[in-house]
Amino acid sequence: MNIDRERFIEELDKKGAYFSNVTVWTIIFSVPLFWLLDLLFIGDQWYNFMFIRFLVGAASYFVFWFGTRNKWHYLLVLNLVVALNVIFSSMVCGLLGLKEVLPYFLLFSVMMLLINATAFWEPAYPVIHSSISYFIIVILYGFKPNITGYSGLVENGGGVYFLVSAFSCLLANNRYQLITREIEKVLVISKANHRLLEQNEHINDQRMVIEEANRRLKNINDYRQNTLSLMIHDLKNFVGSNQMSIDLISRKSGNLTSEQKEILSYINMGNKKLHYLSGKLADSAEIDTGQVEYRYEEFDAVVEIENAAIGLVDAAALRDISIQSHLSPEPILLYLDRIFFNHILYKLIANAVRFTEQGAAITIHASKAENSCVIEVIDTGKALGMVYLDDLFSKIKEVSEAQSVTNQTGFGFSAAKLLTESMGGTLHYSCGEEKGNFYQIKFKLA
Q1: Structure confidence by residue, pLDDT tens digits, 72-123
Q2: Rounded distance between C-alpha atoms, residue 104 and residue 386, angstroms
Q3: Which of 6, 156, 180, 225 gets the most CB atoms within 10 Å of its CB?
């Protein structure tokens, strides 16, 4: 399947570690149940068994505690704990007499079935543990006096244990295959959700480009209309003045020579051509420099932040990420380009959602501090690392690139940083194992 193998192994370890903890604590908490069994079927010897079981339970907890503290792999801890209890239970079943052993075999069978129905490990491990228990039981029964063959072992619960423990190995195999397949499906769905998040961001980029183009076209149209009005007004006055002078001279044409009349005719024709050409020039007057200029206006930043967060709630839900807003109850007025401010917010939050781990929570804070608007985006996911963050925030070098970057993965953080700085703001970022990833934007208040 087209999935990241490293991510797949990481998810397997997470799932296995969780079920390993459940299995270990189930084994530890089952000790009192065996105490009750000893009290009912062994009689006076139950004190000795209680002490030994307590030691085995304490040893199981110590292995779990020590392994967790030293960051052992969950399979090592789980196998040690299970092996310790399987060996002890096998010895108990192998040493007890035929009259007392039946309930122990039955409870041992239930324990093996419960372990393999809870733990998430490869089927080879339960097969090894079951084989060890078979070997110990068979060897110990071979040393018992007054027993002909192993029929007594089979008739007094051993046969049930052998069947149930073997069946539990098959159950462990089925469970391993099913959960592995489920993890693969989750990763495929997560990858598809990641693509949807990218497409959602691309759609917002296109919307921003359209809004900016519409605004530029409106500016061009306003400029064209103003220019045309001025040109038409000035040219009409100029052509009108020329025509008045030509008409005045024409009325006194009796005093003009033929050569002067011919020159006057040329001037009159040129004035008409000038009138025609000035009209054409006014019709074709346009301006489109191709450069985006910020159009500053005063607006409430709280409203824009809230709209950006709401617009990304559905995209975050695809990755099981919650977005929470803690915004100032008072308006925070800024004097910036509203479209580009919205673009910065969307880029920052969308990429925080994209690069954090599944199931994390993202919190957005907005407040006033030292005559500035402070916007903080905090995610509780795994820390990305400063080296990786530096790379993400430095992919684009020019503001012009940041203004036009669309349909490109991984450029959102860098575009947000450059656009913030080009409008006089600052963007800081940091990360840590305890606090996750932290992003902060500052703009001066209006």
Answers
A1: 998 999 999 999 999 988 888 888 877 778 888 888 888 899 999 888 888 8
A2: 57
A3: 156
Last residue of a domain, one of 254, 283, 312: 283
Q: Residues of the chain whose pLDDT is less than 50?
A: 286-291, 406-407
Q: Which long-range contacts link 325-328 to residues 24+ away (Cβ below 8 Å)?
A: 325/363, 325/364, 325/366, 326/363, 326/364, 326/365, 326/366, 327/302, 327/364, 327/365, 327/366, 328/302, 328/366, 328/367, 328/368
Tokens for 198? 């990218």
Task: Report the amino acid identity of residue 343.
Answer: H
User: DSSP readout, 243-286?
Assistant: HHHHHHHHHTGGGS-HHHHHHHHHHHHHHHHHHHHHHHHHHT--
Q: How many CB atoms lie within 10 A of CB 235?
A: 17
Q: Please name which of 36, 157, 48 lies closest in space to residue 100, comparing C-alpha atoms.
A: 157
- The answer on 171 and 51 residing in a single domain is yes
How many whole angstroms separate alpha carbon 283 and alpha carbon 281?
Answer: 5
Q: What is the pLDDT of residue 9?
A: 86
Tokens of 209: 């480009």
By three-state DSSP, how is residue 293 classified? coil
Mean pLDDT (the chain, rounded) = 80
Last residue of a domain, one of 283, 313, 342: 283
In the sheet where 361-369 sits, what is the strand order? 322-327, 361-369, 372-379, 436-444, 426-432
pLDDT digit string, tens, across residues 183-224: 888 887 777 777 777 777 777 777 777 777 777 777 776 666
As given in the structure block, the two tokens for residue 177 are 């295959």
Write the CA distances from 365 to 87, 325, 373, integer angstroms: 56, 6, 10
pTM value > 0.90: no
Q: Is 398 left (phi over 0), alpha (psi -120 to 50) or beta?
A: beta
DSSP helix/strand/coil, 432: strand
